[in-house]
Amino acid sequence: VQLQASGGGLVQAGGSLRLSCAASGRTFSSNALAWFRQAPGKERDFVAAIGWSGGSTYYADSVKGRFTISRDNAKNMVYLQMNSLKPEDTAVYYCAVHNSGSLYSLESYRYWGQGTLVTVSS
Q1: Within the chain, what is the greatest distance between any pair of CA atoms?
Q2: DSSP 3-state assignment of 87?
Q3: pLDDT value, residue 54
Q4: How many H-runs (helices) and E-runs (strands) does the chain carry?
Q5: Beta carbons within 8 Å of 110's beta carbon, 6+ residues apart
Q6: CB–CB of 47/67 below 8 Å?
């Protein structure tokens, strides 16, 4: 099983980026999917999650109203549209496949992508 995240880069504050995560090796259409992020010197934090059908979404308060998570089960993909980016959004962003437990906890996720770096300049 592999998760390949892409779409990170350098952007000015107020700008937008769209992250993508491609899953291979098996289908995850029955699993919730999520994005986490880890800023330098900090712990990995929950950003957003989406239910298996895409009908339910969950966001950290810090990104609510600016980020949108979506998925395409036919393509085994999950996306994170990030708008109105702020310097504090700078981090490595990881996609993950939910296994069991709270959607907000690292320990609930079984498979992780390698991460893609997002840098927001002020």
Answers
A1: 40
A2: helix
A3: 84
A4: 0, 11
A5: 96, 97, 98, 99
A6: yes
**CB of 115 within 8 A of CB of 39?**
no
pLDDT in tens, 15-24: 999 999 999 8
For the beta sheet containing 67-72, the strands, ordered from the edge strand earlier in sequence to the opposite edge, are 2-6, 17-24, 77-82, 67-72
> Do residues 104 and 58 lie in contact, with contact meaning Cβ atoms separated by under 8 Å?
yes
Q: Which long-range contacts (CB under 8 A, 24 or more apart) does 58-63 make?
A: 58/103, 58/104, 62/88, 63/89
Q: Which two tokens stand for residue 37?
A: 């992020």
CB of 9 closer than 8 Å to CB of 15: no
Cα–Cα distance, 56 to 43 (Å, whole number): 26
Vertex 104: Cα angle to 26 and 10 (nearest 5) = 80
pLDDT tens sequence across 97-116: 999 999 999 999 999 999 99
Single out the residue of 50, 22, 19 nearest to residue 34, CA to CA.
50
Tokens of 77: 């993909």
